[in-house]
Design brief:
This protein has 217 residues and is mainly α. It has 2 domains: 99 residues, Endonuclease Iii, domain 2, CATH 1.10.1670.10; 100 residues, Orthogonal Bundle (Endonuclease III, domain 1), CATH 1.10.340. It is elongated and about 55 Å long. The two termini are 26 Å apart.
Length: 217
């Protein structure tokens, strides 16, 4: 089966399971989405969704956030982990949004990735989910499933993004990255997974991947 044939079948299955996948992070506008995605680094979405409402109640826009003491931001977001780095990034990016962008989140990858704490994946999520620009954010679930299903070699997230963009229609990228995330969480865990019983892995996983995972289990 070619990668294109695999991709078409995977799309069909994911559309059946997740016809309208919601964004898992609570937010109300591009700014709160940007901050929530930043908080999600090495943290579960569930934890972020517990913490972010308290932060946004205190400061739900760049101007208010820029006025907060970084120690207060850090205290609120501490349960998300990496709070020293994240609190500093949130305050600094908020200041730059006010100073450079009139308090608005910019709508280009270049401007987003120039903000403190904002990498390509975070920018991709904001571009896709806040502004509807085709993007394919690659998180840990997508990276491992792309390799497991033989759609990429797993060498790097950059390679995975290129390979997935090449095999899936651009019009599907924004919803598809969410569909794969949900499938990974609910049906296709990293460890202790029976590939032979999985609705996708049972036919999409490469022989090499099946052998590697059977040795680890």
């Amino acid at each position: 089966m070619t990668r294109a044939e695999k991709a078409a079948r995977i799309l069909q299955i994911l559309d059946e399971l997740y016809p309208q996948p919601p964004v898992p992070l609570l937010h109300r506008d591009p700014y709160t989405l940007l901050v929530a995605v930043l908080l999600s680094a090495q943290c579960t979405d569930v934890r972020v969704n517990e913490v972010s409402p308290r932060l946004f109640e205190r400061a739900g826009n760049p101007a208010d956030m820029a006025r907060l003491d970084v120690r207060e931001i850090r205290r609120i977001i501490r349960p998300c982990g990496l709070s020293p780095q994240k609190s500093k990034a949130i305050k600094e990016l908020s200041k730059l949004l006010v100073q450079r962008h009139g308090g608005q989140v910019p709508k280009t990858f270049e401007e987003l990735e120039a903000l403190p704490g904002v990498g390509h994946k975070t920018a991709s999520v904001v571009m896709a989910q806040a502004f509807g620009v085709p993007a394919f954010p690659v998180d840990t679930h997508i990276h491992r499933l792309a390799a497991r299903w033989g759609l990429s070699n797993g060498k790097s997230v950059e390679r995975t993004e290129r390979d997935l963009k090449a095999v899936f229609p651009e019009a599907r990228w924004n919803a598809l990255h969410l569909q794969i995330i949900y499938f990974g969480r609910e049906h296709c865990p990293a460890r202790g997974h029976d590939l032979s019983a999985c609705r996708i892995c049972s036919w999409a996983a490469t022989k090499k991947r099946i052998h590697e995972e059977s040795r680890r289990s």
